[in-house]
Amino acid sequence: MALIPRDRYSGLDGQTVYPEKPWYVYVLRSKEKKHRQKIYIGKTNEPDRRLRQHNQEISGGAKYTKKYGPWERVLLIQGFKTETDALKFEWAIQHPSVSKRLRGYTGNLKRSYSARVPLILWLLKQGDWSYLNYWLHTPNKESST
Questions:
Q1: Is the C-alpha dihedral spanning 100, 104, 106, 108 positive or negative?
Q2: Residue 96 in contact with residue 89, Cβ under 8 Å?
Q3: In angstroms, how far is the first alpha carbon of the chain from the final one?
Q4: Strands (E), 48-114
Q5: What is the DSSP string of 3-48?
Q6: Residue 30 reports pLDDT greater than 90
Q7: Higher pLDDT, 59 or 4
Q8: 16, 29, 31, 126: which has the fewest Cβ within 10 Å?
Q9: Any idea what DSSP says for residue 103?
């Protein structure tokens, strides 16, 4: 999946300026048939590189992802202006039972793919994050084996 490239603009001195990279929150799902409900939630400013790290193509993936990989990205949320904003969203979906932002949510709070995706979509409709763009991949039958 190709991501939206960073825009560049001309600074006051005429030099080309690249704004800070945007931050993303992503959800990975195990491709292994016996671990299909296993998910990993993270934040990054380089989603493609981070997926390669989790799949051990390059160094730097999380310890948890080594155990249940390979992984596919099923949800990518973009538009966080700072790392802190992305971290707040990531924390809310990783800790739904204690997050103040999820007090009105009445769905399942389990840490599985089928429970977390509706929770995340609900959270994206709330005021704080309703401006964000997201990409949701629903794996077809071929990729769910």
A1: negative
A2: no
A3: 21
A4: 71-80
A5: PPPPP-EE-TTS-EE-PPPPEEEEEEEE-SGGGTT-EEEEEES-HH
A6: yes
A7: 59
A8: 16
A9: T
Q: Which helix (H) or strand (E) covers residue 137, if one does? A: none
Q: What are phi and psi of 53, to 5 degrees?
A: -65, -45
From the CB of residue 62, how many other CB atoms can be counted at a distance below 10 Å? 13
- Please give the structure tokens belonging to residue 115: 């429970």
Give strand pairing partners of 135: 76
Res. 2: pLDDT tops 50: no
Torsion of CA 86, 89, 95, 101, to 10 degrees: 150
- pLDDT tens digits along 40-54: 999 999 999 999 999
Find residue 25's DSSP bridge partners. Answer: 43, 77
Could you give the angle at which helices 83-94 and 113-124 cross, rounded to 10 degrees? 130
Q: Return the pLDDT at 52.
A: 95
- Say how many residues make up the chain: 145
Q: What is each CA distance from 5 to 2, 45, 46, in whole angstroms? A: 8, 12, 11
What is the C-alpha separation between 41 and 28, in angstroms, rounded?
6
